[in-house]
Amino acid sequence: MADITSLTLTQTLKALEEKEFSLEELNKAYLERIKKYNSSLNAYLFVNEQNKQSFSTSKKIPAAIKDVISTKDIPTTAGSKVLGGYRPPYDATVVNLLLEQGVGVIGKTNCDEFAMGASGENSAYGVTKNPWDKTKVPGGTSSGSAVAVATDLCVFALGSDTGGSIRQPASLCGVVGLKTSYGRVSRYGLIATASSLDTIGSLTKSVEDAALVLSWISGPDGYDANCTNEKFTLQPKTWVNHPTRLKASIQGLKVGVPKEYFGEGLDSKVKEVINKAIKKLEELGAEVVEVSLPHSPYALAAYYIINPSEISANMARFDGIRFGFGREKIGPEVKRRIMLGTFALSSGYYDDYYAQAAKVRTLVKQDFEKAFASVDVIVGPVSPTTAWNLGEKVDDPLKMYLADIYTISANLAGIPGLSVPCGFSDGLPVGLQILGKQWDEETVLRVGYAYEQATDWRKEKPKL
Protein backbone atom coordinates (compact mmCIF):
# COMPACT_ATOMS: atom_id res chain seq x y z
CA MET A 1 0.00 0.00 0.00
CA ALA A 2 2.94 2.32 0.62
CA ASP A 3 3.70 2.43 -3.11
CA ILE A 4 0.47 4.25 -3.99
CA THR A 5 1.95 7.58 -2.88
CA SER A 6 4.57 7.34 -5.61
CA LEU A 7 1.98 7.31 -8.40
CA THR A 8 1.50 10.33 -10.65
CA LEU A 9 -1.90 12.02 -10.84
CA THR A 10 -2.82 10.28 -14.09
CA GLN A 11 -1.66 6.93 -12.71
CA THR A 12 -3.68 7.55 -9.54
CA LEU A 13 -6.83 8.32 -11.53
CA LYS A 14 -6.37 5.14 -13.57
CA ALA A 15 -5.82 3.02 -10.46
CA LEU A 16 -8.90 4.51 -8.79
CA GLU A 17 -10.99 3.83 -11.89
CA GLU A 18 -9.79 0.24 -11.92
CA LYS A 19 -10.50 -0.03 -8.16
CA GLU A 20 -6.94 -0.99 -7.24
CA PHE A 21 -7.44 1.03 -4.05
CA SER A 22 -10.03 3.42 -2.63
CA LEU A 23 -9.88 7.17 -1.94
CA GLU A 24 -9.91 6.34 1.78
CA GLU A 25 -6.79 4.18 1.36
CA LEU A 26 -5.14 6.83 -0.81
CA ASN A 27 -5.66 9.60 1.75
CA LYS A 28 -4.63 7.39 4.64
CA ALA A 29 -1.36 6.54 2.88
CA TYR A 30 -0.56 10.20 2.22
CA LEU A 31 -1.48 11.34 5.73
CA GLU A 32 0.71 8.61 7.24
CA ARG A 33 3.60 9.66 5.02
CA ILE A 34 3.16 13.32 5.95
CA LYS A 35 3.14 12.38 9.63
CA LYS A 36 6.35 10.42 9.15
CA TYR A 37 8.40 12.93 7.13
CA ASN A 38 7.02 16.45 7.41
CA SER A 39 8.70 17.24 10.72
CA SER A 40 12.15 16.89 9.12
CA LEU A 41 11.21 18.75 5.90
CA ASN A 42 8.80 21.48 7.10
CA ALA A 43 6.94 21.30 3.80
CA TYR A 44 3.49 21.72 5.38
CA LEU A 45 2.40 24.51 7.70
CA PHE A 46 -1.04 22.94 8.14
CA VAL A 47 -2.28 19.39 7.51
CA ASN A 48 -6.02 19.05 6.95
CA GLU A 49 -7.09 16.10 9.06
CA GLN A 50 -10.32 17.72 10.35
CA ASN A 51 -12.45 17.48 7.16
CA LYS A 52 -12.61 21.25 6.72
CA GLN A 53 -13.62 23.04 3.50
CA SER A 54 -15.71 20.21 2.05
CA PHE A 55 -12.62 18.00 2.28
CA SER A 56 -13.18 14.50 3.54
CA THR A 57 -10.30 12.05 3.68
CA SER A 58 -12.66 9.55 2.11
CA LYS A 59 -13.92 11.57 -0.85
CA LYS A 60 -11.17 13.67 -2.46
CA ILE A 61 -7.82 13.32 -4.24
CA PRO A 62 -5.24 14.88 -1.88
CA ALA A 63 -3.50 17.98 -3.27
CA ALA A 64 -1.28 20.49 -1.46
CA ILE A 65 -1.92 24.24 -1.77
CA LYS A 66 0.69 26.96 -1.30
CA ASP A 67 -0.13 29.08 1.73
CA VAL A 68 -0.66 32.25 -0.32
CA ILE A 69 -3.81 30.78 -1.92
CA SER A 70 -7.04 31.28 0.04
CA THR A 71 -8.79 28.20 1.41
CA LYS A 72 -12.12 28.59 3.21
CA ASP A 73 -11.92 27.87 6.95
CA ILE A 74 -8.36 26.56 6.54
CA PRO A 75 -5.41 28.69 7.79
CA THR A 76 -3.85 30.88 5.09
CA THR A 77 -0.86 32.77 6.48
CA ALA A 78 1.29 33.54 3.41
CA GLY A 79 4.18 32.29 5.53
CA SER A 80 3.87 35.38 7.75
CA LYS A 81 3.11 36.09 11.41
CA VAL A 82 1.07 39.05 10.14
CA LEU A 83 -1.67 36.61 9.08
CA GLY A 84 -1.18 34.14 11.91
CA GLY A 85 -4.46 32.34 12.57
CA TYR A 86 -6.26 33.88 9.57
CA ARG A 87 -8.91 31.59 8.06
CA PRO A 88 -10.40 33.03 4.86
CA PRO A 89 -14.18 33.13 4.46
CA TYR A 90 -13.89 31.98 0.83
CA ASP A 91 -11.94 29.70 -1.50
CA ALA A 92 -9.70 30.94 -4.29
CA THR A 93 -11.06 30.24 -7.77
CA VAL A 94 -8.41 27.56 -8.37
CA VAL A 95 -9.42 25.75 -5.17
CA ASN A 96 -13.10 25.85 -6.15
CA LEU A 97 -12.23 24.43 -9.57
CA LEU A 98 -10.23 21.61 -7.99
CA LEU A 99 -13.08 20.78 -5.63
CA GLU A 100 -15.37 20.44 -8.67
CA GLN A 101 -12.93 17.84 -10.06
CA GLY A 102 -12.96 15.79 -6.86
CA VAL A 103 -9.68 17.19 -5.55
CA GLY A 104 -9.33 18.38 -1.94
CA VAL A 105 -6.81 20.24 0.17
CA ILE A 106 -4.69 17.84 2.20
CA GLY A 107 -2.63 20.72 3.54
CA LYS A 108 -1.14 24.20 3.13
CA THR A 109 2.51 24.34 2.15
CA ASN A 110 5.31 26.50 3.49
CA CYS A 111 6.51 29.48 1.45
CA ASP A 112 8.69 32.56 1.68
CA GLU A 113 6.79 35.30 3.51
CA PHE A 114 4.20 36.85 1.19
CA ALA A 115 5.96 34.97 -1.64
CA MET A 116 9.09 37.11 -1.45
CA GLY A 117 12.41 35.28 -1.71
CA ALA A 118 14.40 32.84 -3.81
CA SER A 119 15.37 30.13 -1.35
CA GLY A 120 12.51 29.06 0.94
CA GLU A 121 14.34 30.58 3.91
CA ASN A 122 12.12 33.62 4.47
CA SER A 123 9.08 31.92 5.99
CA ALA A 124 8.17 33.11 9.47
CA TYR A 125 7.45 29.46 10.31
CA GLY A 126 10.89 28.04 9.62
CA VAL A 127 12.97 26.91 6.68
CA THR A 128 11.83 24.20 4.25
CA LYS A 129 14.55 21.58 3.67
CA ASN A 130 15.65 20.23 0.30
CA PRO A 131 14.91 16.47 0.39
CA TRP A 132 17.96 15.62 -1.74
CA ASP A 133 20.24 17.19 0.87
CA LYS A 134 18.70 18.75 3.99
CA THR A 135 21.61 21.16 4.36
CA LYS A 136 20.56 22.79 1.05
CA VAL A 137 17.77 25.22 0.15
CA PRO A 138 14.71 23.92 -1.74
CA GLY A 139 14.29 27.15 -3.72
CA GLY A 140 11.61 29.78 -3.32
CA THR A 141 8.98 30.86 -2.99
CA SER A 142 6.87 27.72 -3.55
CA SER A 143 9.31 25.70 -1.45
CA GLY A 144 6.82 23.60 0.48
CA SER A 145 4.83 22.66 -2.62
CA ALA A 146 7.96 21.51 -4.47
CA VAL A 147 9.22 19.48 -1.51
CA ALA A 148 5.78 17.91 -0.91
CA VAL A 149 5.65 16.69 -4.52
CA ALA A 150 9.29 15.55 -4.58
CA THR A 151 8.80 13.43 -1.45
CA ASP A 152 5.35 12.05 -2.35
CA LEU A 153 3.52 13.93 0.41
CA CYS A 154 0.69 14.81 -2.02
CA VAL A 155 -0.52 13.77 -5.48
CA PHE A 156 0.27 17.25 -6.81
CA ALA A 157 0.51 20.82 -5.53
CA LEU A 158 -0.36 24.37 -6.53
CA GLY A 159 2.13 27.22 -6.28
CA SER A 160 2.48 30.79 -7.44
CA ASP A 161 5.17 32.21 -9.73
CA THR A 162 6.03 35.94 -9.65
CA GLY A 163 9.62 35.73 -10.87
CA GLY A 164 10.40 32.00 -10.96
CA SER A 165 8.76 30.86 -7.74
CA ILE A 166 7.38 27.64 -9.26
CA ARG A 167 10.11 26.83 -11.78
CA GLN A 168 13.12 27.43 -9.52
CA PRO A 169 12.07 25.18 -6.59
CA ALA A 170 10.89 22.61 -9.16
CA SER A 171 14.40 22.64 -10.63
CA LEU A 172 16.16 22.48 -7.26
CA CYS A 173 13.89 19.68 -5.95
CA GLY A 174 13.59 17.60 -9.14
CA VAL A 175 9.89 17.93 -10.01
CA VAL A 176 7.85 19.40 -12.87
CA GLY A 177 6.88 23.06 -12.40
CA LEU A 178 4.54 24.95 -14.73
CA LYS A 179 4.29 28.74 -14.78
CA THR A 180 1.21 29.63 -16.79
CA SER A 181 0.74 32.56 -19.18
CA TYR A 182 -0.27 35.73 -17.35
CA GLY A 183 -4.07 35.70 -17.50
CA ARG A 184 -4.45 31.96 -18.15
CA VAL A 185 -5.50 31.18 -14.55
CA SER A 186 -7.57 33.45 -12.32
CA ARG A 187 -5.66 35.07 -9.46
CA TYR A 188 -8.83 35.56 -7.40
CA GLY A 189 -7.99 34.37 -3.90
CA LEU A 190 -4.23 34.64 -4.39
CA ILE A 191 -2.62 36.97 -1.85
CA ALA A 192 -0.98 39.43 -4.21
CA THR A 193 2.77 39.95 -4.36
CA ALA A 194 3.22 41.92 -7.60
CA SER A 195 -0.08 42.03 -9.44
CA SER A 196 1.24 42.38 -13.00
CA LEU A 197 3.65 39.46 -12.52
CA ASP A 198 1.78 36.92 -10.35
CA THR A 199 0.60 33.63 -11.86
CA ILE A 200 -0.79 30.43 -10.33
CA GLY A 201 0.55 27.12 -11.61
CA SER A 202 1.34 23.58 -10.57
CA LEU A 203 4.10 21.37 -9.23
CA THR A 204 3.60 17.79 -10.34
CA LYS A 205 5.23 14.38 -10.70
CA SER A 206 4.93 14.39 -14.49
CA VAL A 207 4.36 16.72 -17.46
CA GLU A 208 1.10 14.95 -18.27
CA ASP A 209 -0.07 15.75 -14.74
CA ALA A 210 0.78 19.42 -15.29
CA ALA A 211 -1.37 19.47 -18.43
CA LEU A 212 -4.29 17.86 -16.62
CA VAL A 213 -4.13 20.24 -13.66
CA LEU A 214 -3.96 23.22 -16.02
CA SER A 215 -7.10 22.02 -17.79
CA TRP A 216 -8.81 21.96 -14.39
CA ILE A 217 -7.74 25.38 -13.04
CA SER A 218 -7.69 27.57 -16.17
CA GLY A 219 -10.43 29.82 -17.53
CA PRO A 220 -12.46 32.87 -16.54
CA ASP A 221 -14.36 33.36 -13.29
CA GLY A 222 -15.66 36.94 -13.53
CA TYR A 223 -13.38 38.12 -10.71
CA ASP A 224 -9.98 38.54 -12.40
CA ALA A 225 -10.26 41.14 -15.18
CA ASN A 226 -6.95 39.99 -16.69
CA CYS A 227 -8.09 36.38 -17.07
CA THR A 228 -8.67 35.09 -20.60
CA ASN A 229 -12.07 33.72 -21.61
CA GLU A 230 -10.38 30.64 -23.07
CA LYS A 231 -10.04 27.53 -20.96
CA PHE A 232 -7.00 25.35 -21.59
CA THR A 233 -8.28 22.06 -22.96
CA LEU A 234 -6.08 19.22 -24.02
CA GLN A 235 -8.04 16.06 -23.44
CA PRO A 236 -11.60 14.80 -23.43
CA LYS A 237 -13.47 14.06 -20.21
CA THR A 238 -12.42 10.42 -20.45
CA TRP A 239 -8.80 11.31 -19.68
CA VAL A 240 -7.59 7.95 -18.43
CA ASN A 241 -5.87 5.84 -21.11
CA HIS A 242 -6.80 8.32 -23.81
CA PRO A 243 -4.06 9.54 -26.20
CA THR A 244 -3.56 13.30 -26.00
CA ARG A 245 -1.96 15.88 -28.23
CA LEU A 246 1.00 15.88 -25.82
CA LYS A 247 2.02 12.59 -27.40
CA ALA A 248 2.50 14.22 -30.82
CA SER A 249 6.04 14.10 -32.19
CA ILE A 250 8.35 17.12 -31.86
CA GLN A 251 9.95 16.24 -35.19
CA GLY A 252 10.76 19.47 -37.03
CA LEU A 253 9.84 21.70 -34.08
CA LYS A 254 12.23 24.66 -33.81
CA VAL A 255 13.89 25.03 -30.42
CA GLY A 256 15.64 28.32 -29.68
CA VAL A 257 18.70 28.47 -27.44
CA PRO A 258 19.42 32.03 -26.20
CA LYS A 259 23.14 32.76 -26.19
CA GLU A 260 22.66 35.20 -23.28
CA TYR A 261 21.64 32.31 -20.97
CA PHE A 262 24.95 30.47 -21.32
CA GLY A 263 27.44 33.11 -20.18
CA GLU A 264 29.82 33.34 -17.22
CA GLY A 265 27.11 33.25 -14.54
CA LEU A 266 26.09 29.67 -15.38
CA ASP A 267 27.78 26.93 -13.37
CA SER A 268 29.87 24.77 -15.71
CA LYS A 269 28.42 21.47 -14.46
CA VAL A 270 24.84 22.76 -14.76
CA LYS A 271 25.67 23.99 -18.27
CA GLU A 272 26.88 20.51 -19.19
CA VAL A 273 23.60 18.93 -18.01
CA ILE A 274 21.49 21.50 -19.89
CA ASN A 275 23.49 21.05 -23.12
CA LYS A 276 23.00 17.29 -22.87
CA ALA A 277 19.22 17.83 -22.51
CA ILE A 278 19.17 20.12 -25.55
CA LYS A 279 21.04 17.46 -27.51
CA LYS A 280 18.36 14.94 -26.50
CA LEU A 281 15.67 17.24 -27.96
CA GLU A 282 17.70 17.32 -31.17
CA GLU A 283 17.85 13.51 -31.20
CA LEU A 284 14.06 13.49 -30.87
CA GLY A 285 13.79 15.43 -34.11
CA ALA A 286 13.73 19.05 -33.00
CA GLU A 287 15.76 21.64 -34.89
CA VAL A 288 17.98 23.60 -32.50
CA VAL A 289 18.51 27.26 -33.42
CA GLU A 290 20.56 29.91 -31.62
CA VAL A 291 18.52 33.00 -30.76
CA SER A 292 19.27 36.26 -29.00
CA LEU A 293 17.42 37.98 -26.18
CA PRO A 294 19.59 41.11 -26.08
CA HIS A 295 17.79 42.88 -23.25
CA SER A 296 17.76 39.89 -20.87
CA PRO A 297 20.87 41.17 -19.00
CA TYR A 298 18.78 44.21 -17.95
CA ALA A 299 15.67 42.21 -17.03
CA LEU A 300 16.81 41.46 -13.48
CA ALA A 301 17.33 45.13 -12.66
CA ALA A 302 13.97 46.07 -14.19
CA TYR A 303 12.24 43.27 -12.30
CA TYR A 304 13.65 44.35 -8.96
CA ILE A 305 12.21 47.82 -9.46
CA ILE A 306 8.79 46.74 -10.78
CA ASN A 307 8.39 43.92 -8.24
CA PRO A 308 9.07 46.01 -5.08
CA SER A 309 7.02 48.91 -6.46
CA GLU A 310 3.94 46.74 -6.81
CA ILE A 311 4.69 45.10 -3.46
CA SER A 312 4.77 48.47 -1.69
CA ALA A 313 1.25 49.19 -2.99
CA ASN A 314 -0.14 45.70 -2.24
CA MET A 315 1.31 45.51 1.27
CA ALA A 316 -0.30 48.80 2.31
CA ARG A 317 -3.47 46.88 3.24
CA PHE A 318 -1.69 44.98 6.03
CA ASP A 319 -1.94 47.81 8.54
CA GLY A 320 -3.30 45.84 11.49
CA ILE A 321 -6.72 47.47 11.10
CA ARG A 322 -8.25 45.77 8.07
CA PHE A 323 -5.87 42.82 7.76
CA GLY A 324 -3.22 41.22 9.90
CA PHE A 325 -1.55 42.05 13.19
CA GLY A 326 0.42 45.09 12.01
CA ARG A 327 3.74 45.75 10.38
CA GLU A 328 5.87 45.05 13.45
CA LYS A 329 5.52 41.33 12.59
CA ILE A 330 6.77 41.71 9.00
CA GLY A 331 10.09 40.00 8.19
CA PRO A 332 13.26 41.67 6.83
CA GLU A 333 12.88 40.67 3.15
CA VAL A 334 9.33 42.01 2.97
CA LYS A 335 10.43 45.25 4.67
CA ARG A 336 13.32 45.55 2.23
CA ARG A 337 11.04 45.29 -0.81
CA ILE A 338 8.46 47.69 0.62
CA MET A 339 11.18 50.30 1.18
CA LEU A 340 12.72 49.78 -2.27
CA GLY A 341 9.33 50.05 -3.94
CA THR A 342 8.23 53.10 -1.99
CA PHE A 343 11.47 54.84 -2.95
CA ALA A 344 11.17 53.91 -6.64
CA LEU A 345 7.61 55.27 -6.78
CA SER A 346 8.30 58.45 -4.81
CA SER A 347 8.07 61.93 -6.30
CA GLY A 348 11.31 62.85 -8.02
CA TYR A 349 12.44 59.25 -8.54
CA TYR A 350 9.50 57.68 -10.40
CA ASP A 351 10.74 58.75 -13.84
CA ASP A 352 14.31 57.65 -13.11
CA TYR A 353 13.42 54.21 -11.80
CA TYR A 354 9.92 52.83 -12.32
CA ALA A 355 9.29 54.48 -15.68
CA GLN A 356 12.66 53.27 -17.01
CA ALA A 357 12.04 49.74 -15.71
CA ALA A 358 8.67 49.69 -17.48
CA LYS A 359 10.42 50.59 -20.76
CA VAL A 360 12.93 47.76 -20.28
CA ARG A 361 10.03 45.40 -19.63
CA THR A 362 8.59 46.32 -23.04
CA LEU A 363 11.96 45.66 -24.69
CA VAL A 364 12.21 42.24 -22.97
CA LYS A 365 8.76 41.34 -24.26
CA GLN A 366 9.69 42.47 -27.77
CA ASP A 367 12.84 40.29 -27.63
CA PHE A 368 10.66 37.23 -27.02
CA GLU A 369 8.21 38.20 -29.76
CA LYS A 370 11.07 38.53 -32.24
CA ALA A 371 12.61 35.20 -31.17
CA PHE A 372 9.27 33.37 -31.34
CA ALA A 373 8.81 34.57 -34.91
CA SER A 374 11.47 32.01 -35.88
CA VAL A 375 11.23 29.30 -33.17
CA ASP A 376 8.44 27.39 -31.41
CA VAL A 377 9.96 27.28 -27.92
CA ILE A 378 13.05 28.61 -26.14
CA VAL A 379 15.06 26.35 -23.83
CA GLY A 380 17.80 26.90 -21.28
CA PRO A 381 18.62 26.59 -17.59
CA VAL A 382 16.16 27.42 -14.81
CA SER A 383 18.78 28.28 -12.21
CA PRO A 384 22.46 29.21 -12.65
CA THR A 385 23.40 26.66 -9.97
CA THR A 386 21.99 23.66 -8.14
CA ALA A 387 20.65 24.11 -4.60
CA TRP A 388 23.05 26.06 -2.39
CA ASN A 389 23.71 25.73 1.34
CA LEU A 390 21.12 26.96 3.83
CA GLY A 391 22.19 30.39 5.09
CA GLU A 392 24.74 30.90 2.31
CA LYS A 393 23.03 33.89 0.67
CA VAL A 394 20.74 35.15 3.43
CA ASP A 395 22.94 38.14 4.25
CA ASP A 396 23.61 39.04 0.61
CA PRO A 397 20.30 40.00 -1.07
CA LEU A 398 21.94 40.87 -4.39
CA LYS A 399 23.56 37.44 -4.60
CA MET A 400 20.19 35.87 -3.74
CA TYR A 401 18.36 37.90 -6.42
CA LEU A 402 20.78 36.59 -9.08
CA ALA A 403 19.26 33.13 -8.57
CA ASP A 404 16.27 34.46 -10.56
CA ILE A 405 18.34 35.59 -13.55
CA TYR A 406 16.89 33.05 -16.03
CA THR A 407 13.29 33.01 -14.78
CA ILE A 408 12.16 36.61 -14.27
CA SER A 409 12.02 37.48 -17.99
CA ALA A 410 9.07 35.14 -18.53
CA ASN A 411 7.09 36.99 -15.86
CA LEU A 412 7.96 40.38 -17.33
CA ALA A 413 6.75 39.13 -20.74
CA GLY A 414 3.73 37.19 -19.44
CA ILE A 415 4.70 33.97 -21.25
CA PRO A 416 4.45 30.35 -20.02
CA GLY A 417 7.44 28.42 -18.72
CA LEU A 418 8.06 24.83 -17.67
CA SER A 419 10.81 23.30 -15.54
CA VAL A 420 11.44 19.64 -16.31
CA PRO A 421 14.03 17.56 -14.41
CA CYS A 422 16.89 16.81 -16.80
CA GLY A 423 19.68 15.34 -14.70
CA PHE A 424 21.94 15.85 -11.72
CA SER A 425 25.05 17.81 -10.82
CA ASP A 426 26.95 16.57 -7.77
CA GLY A 427 23.89 14.57 -6.72
CA LEU A 428 21.49 17.54 -6.89
CA PRO A 429 18.67 17.99 -9.45
CA VAL A 430 18.91 20.29 -12.48
CA GLY A 431 15.87 21.57 -14.37
CA LEU A 432 15.51 22.34 -18.08
CA GLN A 433 13.43 25.47 -18.70
CA ILE A 434 11.08 25.48 -21.69
CA LEU A 435 9.51 28.86 -22.58
CA GLY A 436 6.73 29.40 -25.11
CA LYS A 437 4.56 32.02 -26.74
CA GLN A 438 1.82 33.53 -24.61
CA TRP A 439 -1.20 31.17 -24.44
CA ASP A 440 0.83 28.35 -26.04
CA GLU A 441 1.20 26.09 -23.00
CA GLU A 442 0.37 23.17 -25.26
CA THR A 443 3.65 23.33 -27.23
CA VAL A 444 5.66 23.93 -24.05
CA LEU A 445 4.07 20.87 -22.43
CA ARG A 446 4.49 18.79 -25.59
CA VAL A 447 8.24 19.45 -25.67
CA GLY A 448 8.52 18.71 -21.95
CA TYR A 449 6.52 15.51 -22.34
CA ALA A 450 8.69 14.30 -25.25
CA TYR A 451 11.85 14.92 -23.22
CA GLU A 452 10.41 13.29 -20.10
CA GLN A 453 9.30 10.14 -21.95
CA ALA A 454 12.71 9.77 -23.61
CA THR A 455 14.67 10.08 -20.37
CA ASP A 456 12.44 8.52 -17.67
CA TRP A 457 13.87 10.73 -14.93
CA ARG A 458 11.22 9.56 -12.41
CA LYS A 459 13.40 6.57 -11.48
CA GLU A 460 15.39 8.94 -9.25
CA LYS A 461 13.81 9.80 -5.87
CA PRO A 462 15.29 11.47 -2.79
CA LYS A 463 16.12 9.01 -0.02
CA LEU A 464 14.48 10.30 3.15
From TrEMBL:
One of its GO terms (cellular component) is glutamyl-tRNA(Gln) amidotransferase complex. GO terms for molecular function: ATP binding; glutaminyl-tRNA synthase (glutamine-hydrolyzing) activity. The keyword Ligase applies. This is Glutamyl-tRNA(Gln) amidotransferase subunit A. Its EC number is 6.3.5.7. It is an enzyme of class 6 (ligase). It comes from Candidatus Daviesbacteria bacterium RIFCSPLOWO2_01_FULL_39_12. Allows the formation of correctly charged Gln-tRNA(Gln) through the transamidation of misacylated Glu-tRNA(Gln) in organisms which lack glutaminyl-tRNA synthetase. The reaction takes place in the presence of glutamine and ATP through an activated gamma-phospho-Glu-tRNA(Gln). The keyword Protein biosynthesis applies. SUPFAM superfamilies: Amidase signature (AS) enzymes. Keywords: ATP-binding, Ligase, Nucleotide-binding, Protein biosynthesis. The active site is at residues 66, 165. InterPro entries: Amidase, Amidase_dom, AS_sf, GatA. Heterotrimer of A, B and C subunits. NCBIfam families: gatA (TIGR00132). Signal peptide: none annotated. Belongs to the amidase family. GatA subfamily. It catalyses: L-glutamyl-tRNA(Gln) + L-glutamine + ATP + H2O = L-glutaminyl-tRNA(Gln) + L-glutamate + ADP + phosphate + H(+). The gene is gatA. It comes from the Bacteria. One of its GO terms (biological process) is translation.
